[in-house]
Amino acid sequence: MSDAEYNILYVPGSSEIKSSRATNASSTTKAEWLRPSHGFRIRVLSIEVVHAGATSNGIEVYFGDGTNISTNSGKEILEERSAAIGSLFRSWPDGAGPVGDPGEPITYRGTASVAENVTLIIHYREEPRR
Asked: Which domains does the chain have, with CATH numbers?
């Protein structure tokens, strides 16, 4: 990618790449994961979901504070309905991934209450308002 192409994607004033880890411990209740700094929005670069057990437990990751992914239509980051042990990884070019509104959190929710954990890892930038 040339410098000119990169500058189209990268938003000046954005933070360095940050990361966060969360664990969904057998709950179908939504949980706020990340909230951007005041006046900034989150741009997702990658997300990984790792199942620790053999029981199915899908996961929903989305922008906003709705009860579930359906409540926040158009704000989806990842909806994964995998069964059993495994992992899922998604990535986007820098500046081209899903982006929330200024101040909007990233929320996650399990789709079933099971004994095994689901671990989530995200890489993101905080971007200024445009």
From this structure: 3-128 (2.60.120.340)
